[in-house]
Design brief:
Elements: E1 8-9, H1 10-18, H2 20-23, H3 29-42, H4 49-57, E2 61-65, H5 70-87, E3 98-102, H6 110-126, E4 147-149, E5 152-159, E6 176-181, H7 182-188, H8 194-210, H9 230-233
Protein name: YqcI/YcgG family protein
Organism: Marinomonas profundimaris
């Protein structure tokens, strides 16, 4: 049964959608959101080669977050995700990103969608009971910082329905978090070796083409001294001003934000 706050593997979810007319309401928002995402990823021009590879392997993970119990659902999903990461060898989960899809769809533009996204990230941080990893700086303006939950470093790609120029950050009618463990990128496309750099450059070229020449100035490479990870989670269109300060309030010693 399809429900909110649970992790569902792509192959299982696809089977559920085939029977959705008899099992669920035809207008179920979760079926519509899943279909939109699959349609985007199936496009040969979609720039993320890792995402398209995961699609072919049917190894994408999905979770749906409603509007009335969103904090509990979100933390439950991320806790389940971090446990699966700990229990699975990295080579067996390289192409298993988590796509978290939020039901709310009454935003009045990109600014509201971005504010909503940062509020959800803040809730994850505030409700994380694991200690912050000693190897990761807690200062968001440090180029080595990345978001952590359950002791795991993550990269969060926020896709929003109001993105027009940055089409690569639009996966349909809902706000979607595409979440990968940081170490996956370090293994598949490291900035420290020629192969990794070439893969990154190829994807950036595909982003340029897919977005018809629009590429955010905030995009960078993890580990570069002038790169800030938080700026890449939520990207601005060329006609809007990007945030000058990170909206995320990190917990101070003692557990308070």
């Amino acid at each position: 049964m399809l429900s909110n706050g649970k992790v569902v593997i792509q192959s299982d979810l696809r089977n559920l959608t085939r029977d959705h007319i008899s099992t669920y309401r035809v207008d179920d928002w979760r079926i519509e959101a899943f279909s939109n995402i699959i349609s985007c990823l199936e496009s040969q021009d979609f720039p993320c080669l890792f995402g398209r590879n995961a699609l072919r392997k049917e190894s994408l993970r999905f979770a749906f977050i409603g509007e009335h119990n969103s904090v509990n659902e979100l933390t439950s999903v991320m806790t389940e995700f971090t446990k699966s990461i700990a229990d699975t060898n990295i080579t067996d989960r390289l192409y298993s990103p988590m796509l978290i899809i939020f039901k709310r769809a009454d935003f009045q533009g990109l600014k509201e969608e971005h504010e909503f996204a940062w509020q959800r990230i803040q809730e994850l941080h505030d409700n994380d009971t694991a200690p912050w990893p000693a190897s990761v700086p807690s200062e968001v303006e440090d180029s080595a910082w990345s978001f952590c939950y359950g002791g795991v470093e993550f990269f969060i790609n926020v896709s929003c329905p109001s993105h027009v120029q940055l089409k690569s950050r639009n996966l349909g009618n809902h706000v979607v978090f595409v979440i990968n463990p940081r170490e996956h990128f370090d293994l598949l496309a490291s900035h420290k070796n020629t192969k990794g750099i070439k893969i990154r450059e190829k994807i950036r070229k595909r982003v340029f083409d897919y977005n018809k020449g629009h590429v955010s100035k905030e995009l960078g490479f993890y580990g570069d001294s002038d790169n800030l990870e938080w700026k890449q989670y939520v990207l601005s269109e060329s006609d809007s001003k990007p945030a000058s300060r990170c909206p995320l309030h990190m917990k101070k010693e003692g557990g308070l934000a």
